[in-house]
Amino acid sequence: MEGGTLQTIAFEESVLDLPVQRRLQRQYSIPLSIPPPAAHPTTLDALASVIGLRKKHSTLADREWRMPSLAIVRQEGWGTDSLGGFVRTSTSLQHIGGCYWDRQWASVFERMPVGGPGQKGPLARLESMGDIKISSPPGLDQLQEALSAHGCHKSLKRLDVSLPPAADGTDVLLRLCALEQFITSCCAPSAVPVEIAGCGDGTIDLGTLHSDHFPTKPSPRFITAVQELATKAETLRVTLPNGPLLPPKKAAIDLAPTLLREGDPTGGRCLAHLHHPS
Questions:
Q1: Which end of the chain is less packed: N or C, by CB atoms within 10 Å?
Q2: Domain that holds residue 263
Q3: Is the pTM of this model over 0.90?
Q4: Would 240 be classed as within a structural domain?
């Protein structure tokens, strides 16, 4: 298979009827063993897609295949070390599947070589990736840096993100602010479909409207996402830092009234602080 014309590897599950199962059990009563990796890594120049991968297939990463044309990888259940090792020789990656925290995604791409001077980098063609679970602004910053260092500059054409409860309690609104910056840096300038799932722990801290992380010119997508999250949230709170508050940005002042709930005093306190910070 060195070089060759193999373009696709697809794993498909099928249900076998009982007679076939029994015949196969008799035929392969001795467990099949996988041969050791070749002394010299195999190069599959034409291989462009590997799909249907499950956790049990992760040993393929140990084969050390060189796949420069690999564009599409669809998998579920692989560890980040295995996935990073599997795609690290690709210079053509367009879509990579999976579901990981932002820092875990960063570790996948950090396994790939960085492009040299004048080179675009192995992720220059990346258009989409699996679900990104946003943990915190530093976590998303690490992913952004990994993508940029490997050539992904405004090439992403779709994002699927989720906002599960963060281990360190990072507020969901603060994570949305980080996402806005991430989109600006890594996504195509045209309107990018962004699917956002989850609402953290069900609490939104309106004190984030005072944060320096809040975008100066938020996109309509960002405003809509914040309003939807405020509607879904079980609790609105205002947590303010000790000492003087940062002057609120006009965009934050404009957005705040749209997040208020009838009869909830939290929104009123937030507006008061925004108009009269002390």
A1: C
A2: 204-278
A3: no
A4: yes
